[in-house]
Specification:
By secondary structure, this protein is of the alpha+beta class. The chain contains 16 helices and 10 strands.
Length: 525
């Protein structure tokens, strides 16, 4: 088929969920996958989802890239899949920072397992195919799994549900695949979430965002990363307010979801990054509050606050252990009092971690994340009557950023005289300003605007960090008193700050505030 265009050139709309291997049988036994119609509650007519066909097959896919991963870096993946009945080449985009449900995809049939770059014409792969790249393309990893598929008709929509179980293989390394994928063939994408929720009511399913390709490259890099920080947000000036919110919210949601497995595994930095993702999401809901104001928004915000709250105690104890207990244990290695404190904090941290894992593995959390994903994409706020949602985002961003800046500047003028509670409020305002600047940094892309944005962000980060340390110092005694009903065998050194440390932190905070206040707003030309 040399020189031919791809046989399939379309947007792939797909929802992905993960499940534990022990729940596979229960998932496949779900009534939704039975032949026939699942009637909607309270009706006698066959109006519910109907399985039109089902099949099972083994799939072997080979992913190609250069040794230095040129395609991956551009967010493009090249795959050749053996289906048992032939070979299919697929070119996909996967921009991790913004793509969630919808990705570009180009497919064509092949006579053999060898890729055909002539079919890349008109695809996202074509601009990357220099002669050097063409020569360097090689197999990088494989996926091998059994796929059970069910073609389901529901309310005029056609959905292919795939249950995948198998492995990603890179040399001698493997990663397990247990995924449920719901791909829209025709109709409304909102049905994907409706079906996912129906399945999740009886089987523990967790919203997932990483593709098999991403996980394969993770395996090549040495395994699942310990954590993932928030990726850059790219909101162009011509985006509508609705699309701008979705770009920001998807970005934050990814940070939450990719750090969830590490949080469940007890990794402190994963837990921290998951909390940061939740804070960024809550900031996005606040920043775009006028755009997404619908009856469901308070419940969405409440559930995000609840999830974040379940992680707070474990994170506080992680910081306290690293910043206070560890240095004092090193300074007083033979002191039985500090040894007892270390043991108490370790026990408390284990209990807090266990509680956090229980919370994020709960049905409430899983459904909250599913409902959040559905609301971001298809909430009532996105209806035709919301004129603000369709308006260009630039003017909206200017107004919101100006409000945030004014709040920080006004509150920080008398920084030296603020109480602990007032400093904490200023820190929250600075954090919101920082997140807003990160969301809208690409919206105002003039050379001088970019420089001012970078200066503003640097000052905000320094202000936020110094105020955060001051807040930790203020709250230190309440954590240090953990288990104070137990009498220590010796008198402990009080965990005070060093001479002048608080004064130095306040000086840093004041300088950072002054730099921020002096920078001309980056959204102005």
């Amino acid at each position: 088929m040399s020189g031919d265009a791809p046989e399939s050139d379309a947007k792939e709309i797909e929802l992905k969920l993960a499940f534990d291997p022990e729940h596979a049988a229960a998932l496949l036994a779900h009534p939704l996958f039975s032949e026939g119609t699942i009637e909607s509650e309270g009706t006698t007519e066959p109006t519910g989802p109907r399985v039109l066909e089902s099949k099972e097959r083994e799939l072997l896919s080979v992913y190609f890239d250069t040794p230095d991963d040129r395609l991956r870096q551009a967010g493009v993946f090249l795959r050749v899949r053996s289906t048992g009945n032939g070979f299919v080449q697929t070119i996909k985009t996967a921009r991790a920072e913004s793509e969630f449900l919808e990705r570009s995809e180009w497919e064509c049939s092949l006579p053999t397992a060898a890729f055909d770059l002539s079919a890349a014409a008109g695809t996202a792969l074509e601009p990357l195919l220099s002669e050097a790249v063409r020569r360097a393309l090689e197999p990088r990893f494989e996926t091998r799994f059994m796929r059970r598929t069910f073609l389901i008709g529901d309310a005029g929509s056609l959905i292919e549900v795939a249950v995948d179980q198998g492995d990603i293989v890179a040399g001698a390394d493997r990663a397990r695949v247990c995924e449920l994928e719901l791909e829209l063939k025709s109709g409304s994408a909102a049905v994907l979430f409706a079906l996912a929720k129906r399945l999740a009511e009886t089987v523990p399913l967790t919203l997932s965002i990483k593709t098999k390709a991403e996980r394969g490259f993770d395996l090549l890099d040495g395994g699942e990363p310990e954590f993932e920080k928030g990726l850059p947000v790219e909101i162009g000036p011509d985006e509508s307010c609705a699309d701008a919110f979705r770009i920001a919210a998807r970005n934050c949601l990814r940070q939450v979801l990719v750090n969830l497995p590490g949080t469940r595994a007890g990794r402190p930095e994963s837990l921290h990054q998951m909390r940061v993702g939740l804070r960024r999401l809550r900031a996005a809901l606040s920043l775009f509050g006028d755009v997404v104001d619908d009856p469901d928004r308070p419940q969405v915000a409440s559930e995000l606050k609840w999830i974040a709250g379940q992680l707070g105690n474990a994170r506080d104890l992680d910081v306290f252990s690293a910043d206070i207990v560890a240095p004092h244990r090193a300074e007083y290695p033979d002191d039985p009092g500090w040894k007892a404190v270390e043991e108490r904090v370790r026990k408390a941290r284990d209990e807090a971690q266990s509680a956090a894992v229980d919370a994020i593995g709960s049905a409430r959390c899983r459904m909250a994340l599913l409902n959040l994903g559905a609301w971001i994409e298809f909430g009532d706020w996105a209806g035709d009557g919301n004129k603000l949602a369709e308006a260009p985002v630039a003017d909206y961003a200017k107004a919101k950023l100006a409000q945030l800046r004014q709040s920080v500047v006004r509150k920080g003028k008398n920084l030296q005289k603020l109480s602990v509670a007032e400093r904490h409020k200023l820190r929250i305002r600075a954090k919101r300003m920082r997140y807003g600047s990160e969301f809208f940094g690409a919206t105002f892309s003039g050379k001088n605007q970019v420089k001012r944005c970078q200066k503003s962000l640097a000052a905000l980060e320094k202000l936020q960090d110094s105020l955060g340390t001051l807040n930790d110092i203020a709250n230190r005694q309440s954590i240090f008193s953990l288990g104070s009903h137990e009498r220590e065998p010796t008198s402990l050194p009080v965990p005070k700050i060093g001479p002048g440390e608080e004064k130095a932190l306040m000086k840093t905070a004041k300088r950072a505030y002054a730099r921020f206040a002096d920078v001309k707003p980056f959204w102005r030309k």
